[in-house]
Amino acid sequence: MSQAYGAFVPVIGTIGTFDVPPIEPESFFDIFFEVPLASLPPSAIKTTPWDKSAAAVCGPDDHWDGNVDIIWTFGGGGGGHVNAHFGHLLVCPGFGSSNIHVVTGCPGFVAWAFQGVCAGWTVSLLNEDRTPAPQPLPPGWTGWISVSANAAIPIGAICCFTLNLTCNNVTVPVNLCAEACECGPVPVEPSTWGSVKSLYN
Q1: d(Cα 12, Cα 43) in Å, to the nearest integer?
Q2: 26, 44, 70, 191: least CB-packed within 10 angstroms?
Q3: Regions of the chain with pLDDT less than 70
Q4: What is the pTM of this model?
Q5: Which CATH superfamily is domain 2-185 in?
């Protein structure tokens, strides 16, 4: 089942179902689903500090950001449940913070903590108005995970970390991988206008 990016949020729709055939101990198999993006909840909103002209340098961020709720049952009874949270964010080292929107659906207060943040990277939790989020978060809180990297972080480096959200003694880890990319302003040659002008002479 699909969900919006966050924790304690309702199911939006079914991604797919499948039967698991008998398999040998310690073995595995993969299942792939082709799912139209229109069948998934909207990907989490992202904001970046660079202008749109840098997109060609940094590359398109076409990653779907959301949750997958996996539920299974056994033929003889019983079953299980697990949530997977997928988030990806492009960050430009030494060039401000990038942000990804996150939601909570807890009816009570939510304690939060970051875990596994890499050296040279800075993360923070912000309210909708970009002020620092309180501890704990109020019921139904929504806001932003903000990520920056210092200028020494090499292009292509990836830092994956977790935002742990705890509601009614249940902790949900929201995962996010930030990728360092070259996204500073794209230089414009002083002679560009002259070149264009000469083409039409």
Answers
A1: 12
A2: 26
A3: 51-57, 59, 184-201
A4: 0.81
A5: Immunoglobulins (2.60.40.10)
